[in-house]
Specification:
By secondary structure, the protein is α+β, with helices and mostly antiparallel strands. Helices cover 16% and strands 32% of the residues. It has six helices and 26 strands. It is elongated and about 130 Å long.
Length: 441
């Protein structure tokens, strides 16, 4: 039997008899024996825990009372020394007494700073909150289904005011009159530049369409019989002109936009419908069938804009009972996202240089709102018009946005800013022949 086992057996017998002194003597005797080679493992079932608790608590009180004043003084000195050692008089426990050591730099600072300074962060551009220029647009017609303004590729903006079409040259700021139609033809209710920036189509209240050469200031031809009533929407695909009137949808067509590829056409109407037409389904002998009929808007659909960086992405805006901008995958007809703007959506424009969308609105603020895509975070809101901003277009370089509203003003905004100019990489120096030979000057 091991020494520890023998000791445990003896302690059990002594404790069972209640002889504490004999247990103490036995422990002292065993401590001096040579067989004390094992650790002591107590037997809890054989111990008197009540007696042990008494000895640890009540038994010590008597000893402390005997010590008297000396004990209290030593205890006070001990507590003071303990507080000074561990700095226990502070309110913050987990704090360093001294400052933490400086961390060791694995990469030298000069190399680290050069790497991070090679690509500086692009600062947010400044977006002016007011228009840069304001011109009069007297007698402009405040009608949600008309399209009275267009900015051509030759940097000339056309604007229809009742019976007259005016041309404003952005390069020099000059204004000229293109045509004033007869009263029998009614008002001019739509204008659209061809891709060449020279020819322009004019839709009339009399259901006819005129084609003009703006350079020669000459009427080329008049198109009749295509519609039974006014032609409020126009758009070009190369040399093909598309027109929309009151007989296009179930009600009047408010917006027409060809995609940049010319493969798809979007049409929005006063019947709250948005149609996507595809050239692959067009036929010369029968009425063309639409590709998608989209019915998610709850008001007239006038605002249409094809995304310049994703050819199958279309943004559409609804009228006063809808107030939403929706984003569509025109291949599948799925609505990718929607945002409630809180007011009538009148027009939409994509930024040609950034992933941004500009929308113009009606009451109550009649504002322009710039959105970040695809997060749809509002970047800025531009105010100045006092009536709904029905007409909006941008310059050929994409820097300036023009808006016209029922308050009879034409305003120009620096909403999109100047495009970032990419600097050409420096050309590597051409090695000269025989570099080891010194040149003679």
């Amino acid at each position: 039997m091991a020494a520890s086992d023998r000791l445990s057996a003896l302690l059990v017998r002594r404790l069972s008899k209640g002889s504490l002194s004999s247990c103490t003597e036995l422990m002292m005797q065993f401590r001096h024996t040579r067989e004390n080679l094992d650790r002591f493992i107590p037997n809890r079932s054989a111990m008197d825990f009540d007696f042990a608790h008494y000895m640890l608590t009540e038994g010590r009180k008597g000893k402390e009372n005997k010590k008297g004043v000396l004990s209290s003084l030593s205890k006070e000195a001990y507590l003071k020394l303990l507080a000074e050692t561990f700095n226990m008089n502070r309110t913050r426990i987990l704090a360093f007494k001294n400052k933490s050591p400086t961390p060791v730099e694995l990469i030298p600072h000069q190399f680290y700073s050069s790497v991070h300074q090679s690509k500086p962060s692009t600062p947010l551009r400044h977006i002016p909150q007011t228009s840069e220029k304001t011109l009069d647009a007297l007698d402009i017609i405040d009608d949600y289904c008309l399209n009275l303004m267009d900015w051509g590729s030759s940097n000339v903006l056309s604007l229809a005011l009742e019976n007259t079409v005016y041309l404003w040259d952005a390069s020099n700021g000059s204004t000229s009159e293109l045509v004033t139609v007869d009263d029998e033809d009614g008002s001019v209710i739509s204008v659209s530049w061809a891709a060449d920036g020279q020819h322009i189509a004019i839709g009339l209240n009399s259901s006819s369409v005129q084609l003009w050469d703006s350079t020669a200031n000459r009427l080329l031809r008049t198109l009749k019989g295509g519609h039974q009533s006014r032609v409020g929407s126009l758009d070009w695909k190369n040399h093909i002109l598309t027109t929309g009137g009151m007989d296009g949808h179930q009600q009047e067509v408010c917006g027409l936009k060809w995609s940049a590829s010319g493969q798809q056409l979007a049409s929005g109407g006063n019947d709250n419908l948005l149609y996507i037409w595809d050239m692959s389904m067009a036929s010369m002998h029968s009425r063309s069938q639409w590709l998608h009929k989209l019915e998610d808007h709850n008001a007239a659909v006038r605002a249409l804009a094809w995304c310049p960086f994703q050819h199958n992405l279309l943004a559409s805006g609804g009228g006063g009972s809808d107030c939403c901008i929706k984003f569509w995958d025109t291949h599948t007809g799925a609505c990718l996202d929607s945002v409630d703007t809180g007011s009538q959506v009148c027009a939409l424009l994509w930024n040609k240089n950034e992933r941004e969308l500009l929308s113009s609105h009606g009451s109550t603020q009649n504002q322009l709102t710039l959105w970040k895509y695809p997060s749809l975070v509002r970047i800025a809101e531009l105010t100045g018009h006092t009536s709904r901003v029905l007409f909006m277009d941008q310059s050929p370089d994409g820097r300036t946005v023009a808006t016209a509203a029922g308050d009879e003003t034409l305003r120009f905004w620096n909403a999109f800013g100047a495009p970032e100019v990419k600097k050409d990489a420096p050309k590597a120096e051409q090695p000269r022949p025989f570099p080891h030979i010194r040149q003679i000057r």
